[in-house]
Amino acid sequence: AQKITQTQPGMFVQEKEAVTLDCTYDTSDPSYGLFWYKQPSSGEMIFLIYQGSYDQQNATEGRYSLNFQKARKSANLVISASQLGDSAMYFCAMREYDYKLSFGAGTTVTVRA
Amino acid sequence: DAGITQSPRYKITETGRQVTLMCHQTWSHSYMFWYRQDLGHGLRLIYYSAAADITDKGEVPDGYVVSRSKTENFPLTLESATRSQTSVYFCASSHAPSLDPNGEQFFGPGTRLTVL
To answer: Which of B33, B45, B109 lies at the smallest CB-CB distance from A44?
Structure first.
């Protein structure tokens, strides 16, 4: 079974608008972590934000926030005030007890001027 | 420069040849990982290592061999390359859980491998 599901293969967003990228996960491990990575066209993997399963508050890092709904097993990434440089592929990933990461298939975001 | 490096960055080889992809990190991270990235699959774990001389299989280990004689190096070998192993390969590293319970992984720049 897929551990991480990203249902949006691609999205378009207007510059300065907000965009939400969906991520659902599946685990029976009570202690886990959720990550979002950005992969621009140059190919490198850039860490954006982290949410631990026991964290009470949603994580935020600048224009990135993670909408964590534990009961629904979702960890959506919200990018506020989109910029042209936000055009990239975005991956959701989950770390379980064994410290390995499981990745979703990714969502391509294209920001339009 | 400190960090995590991969070599070569690009490699073209032929079916049946042996290929070794190198990964080197300067952070003294305990954990190291090899992933492959294919369209529609995201990144999939090939092998990982929790410490020198300790390695374990990931999701897609078939056709690959790893070793870790030194903490800073984690080479990945394709013993007899096949076309299905054409992919982008990423190496990553992280601290041990005692130092970083979050388990953030730091990625190398990737190696684009083409098997003809």
So the answer is: B109
E-assigned strand segments in A2-112: 4-5, 10-14, 19-21, 24-25, 33-39, 46-52, 60-61, 64-69, 74-79, 88-95, 101-103, 107-112
The C-alpha torsion from A52 through B50 and B28 to B108, rounded to 10°, is -70
Name residue A51's beta-bridge partners: A34
pLDDT in tens, chain A (113 residues): 679 999 999 999 999 999 999 999 999 999 999 999 999 999 999 999 999 999 999 999 999 999 999 999 999 999 999 999 999 999 999 998 888 899 999 999 999 99
The closest CB to that of A50, out of B50, B102, B110, belongs to B102
Question: Could you tell me the two tokens for A105?
Answer: 């298939």
**What are A2's two structure tokens?**
């897929």
Contact B25, B4 (CB under 8 A): yes
